[in-house]
Structures are given as C-alpha cells and as structure tokens.
Known about the structure:
Distance between the termini of chain B: 31 Å
Structural class of chain B: mainly beta
Order of helices and strands of chain B: EEEEEEEEEEE
Helix content of chain B: under 10%
Oligomer: heterodimer
Shape of chain A: globular
Radius of gyration of chain A: 14 Å
Largest sheet of chain A: 6 strands, mixed
Radius of gyration of chain B: 13 Å
Distance between the termini of chain A: 41 Å
Order of helices and strands of chain A: EEEEEEEEEEEE
Shape of chain B: globular
Number of strands of chain A: 12
Number of strands of chain B: 11
Helix content of chain A: under 10%
Strand content of chain A: over 45%
Largest interface: A-B, 22 and 23 residues
Number of helices of chain B: 0
Amino acid sequence: xxxxxxxxxxxxxxxxxxxxxxxxxxxxxxxxxxxxxxxxxxxxxxxxxxxxxxxxxxxxxxxxxxxxxxxxxxxxxxxxxxxxxxxxxxxxxxxxxxxxxxxxxxxxxxxxxxx
Amino acid sequence: xxxxxxxxxxxxxxxxxxxxxxxxxxxxxxxxxxxxxxxxxxxxxxxxxxxxxxxxxxxxxxxxxxxxxxxxxxxxxxxxxxxxxxxxxxxxxxxxxxxxxxxxxxxxxxxxxx
Lengths: 115, 114
C-alpha cells in the first residue's frame, strides 16, 4: 500500500537557521509527491511537488524539497527560517499505481520558528 | 484566495439538528473531496466525487450525507451528529486525469457539536 511517514510531530528551529521537515514514502511505481502548509484556521496550501526531473524542487515562500530515491525521502527545506513559517506541514503522495489516484497524507509536522 | 470557498466558516449545532456544509470551487476542476481534520489525528478522507459521481466513501457514518449536484458544488448534509464529530471539515478539488496536479483546499468549516 502507498504511504507517507512524517517521523517528527514537531520541529523547533531558531529564526535565521536552516530548517528541515522530514518525509519518507512508500509507493509502487513512480512517486508523485507534494508538500502542503496549513496556517491556523486555514485550509492546506500547496507548496511544491516532485513529479520527475531534478531532485531539488523549488516552491513557494522560499521552500525547497529534496527527492532521494534510494532513501525514499522527500524532505522539505528552507535555508533561513522566518517566524512566519511557523505552521503545520503535510507531506502527501498520490496513489497512481492502484488506479484510484487518491492523495495520501502524512500525519503532519508542526514547525515552530523561535525569534 | 484559494479558488475553493466553504460556508459557513463556523457552525455550532445540537445533536438533533440538521445542517449542511457548502463548498464551491471556481477552478474548473472535475473532482471534489471532503476531509475531516480532528486535533492530533491524521487527515481523514471522507468522500470523493469525480465528474459528479461518488467514487469513494471511506466507511463514513450515514449521519453524514454528501451531495454533488455539479462539478463546482459539493455539500455535506449533517443530521443527528455526535460530540466526536466536532472537527474542521475541509473541502478540496483537483483535476483528475492530471496526475501531477495538487489538490486545492478551502479554509474549512469548524464544526462544534453541543
């Protein structure tokens, strides 16, 4: 079965420091991977995706993600964290192999950026 | 502006009430979804509609009844809910057939059951 795992419930980082939010996946076939962010009292907002091509994908708000096929990981990164980046982050994979095309979400990681 | 609008944003209802949640998307998508988001639990997929046809019902209790009259509108009819149904209900849309496209979410309806 297709799945994603976000091993950390919460990540704390000081403002100005680099941040990483981890995601690993398990899929049959080629992975279609996504990152979303959720601010308080808002829905999920799309940040970036990996479909094919360059392993480093750039997205909104200065975020990027590194696809690593051998480690089946798709970690979200940012070189310099802002307090306004504090939010809930979700990794997702699209289940293509089963034919359902369902989006499967991780459990979310809360990012706290400390001033 | 996400292109997906949910109303109302907040709803408080008693267990015997009947109410409906509404979702409208202005993105020309052909698939729409209902999710339930509870504190400290994973996002739960409830229903999926593709070209107005229900393609997924994730063992959701019958007190939740979805309706999709066209590809732009999605409703969730609620009746005789339980306190554990209090949660944030999120609507999303996507363009199926386009595997690389992400979902677009509304800002949700925060539902409280008294």
